[in-house]
Amino acid sequence: MFLVRRAEEVMDHEVVLAQAGDGVEAFLSHPDHGGGIRHVVVREGGRILEVVRVNTALRHASAEAGIAMRDIGSPNFKVDKVSVMFKTLQSLPILLLILIATTLEVSGDATVRLAIYEHAGFIRFGLFLAGAALLLGYGSFLNTAPVEFGRIVGLYIATLFIVWQIINFLVFRTIPGPPVFMGGALIIAGGIVITFWRPT
Prior knowledge:
- It is a single chain.
- The protein is mainly alpha-helical.
- The chain has 2 domains: 74 residues, no CATH class; 105 residues, no CATH class.
- It has 7 helices and 3 strands; from the N terminus they run αβαββααααα.
- The protein has a 3-stranded mixed β-sheet with strand order 1-2-3, with no helix packed on it.
- Strand 1, helix 2 and strand 2 form a beta-alpha-beta unit.
- Helix 4 crosses helix 6.
- The radius of gyration is 25 Å and the shape is elongated.
- It starts with 6 loop residues before the first helix and ends with a helix.
- 17% of the residues are buried.
């Protein structure tokens, strides 16, 4: 005697069904398609075209528009890793991107200053390279933020001031005095005004 059960009842829950004509971007954005690596059965009509492994964690990074599910199983299909990484970074909160950028900038400036005034020879050269890498990272993260450059400057300067004082204390053991606190309060207030004030 044979026991017949529906396919949905015995199918591995990590397996997802998709139509060949479905867009990859729409597939990744579907709320039921999360969970990391999933096996996707790509069907066309009544037949199975292929079974592929898809990292659905990239759902917010999004694939390029216009790519269909039938395309990702092709041996000629290649993922633009740089584009995926860039879109993933753009999905981060703007404040987090600015915080990372300012931390990299201040750390880079501090590293270059240490190289100039406190070291020589190969150590100085190594610190220069490290500072250059940190400053490159700063520029990359700041300009990744998907917002108009003129709007981001206020929040950036306010965040920069705060991070600068933290790094200044941690690296050079310098405690800010009353003038710094007073001027910093004005800088932060100005940054908030520039960023959030929208004249009607």
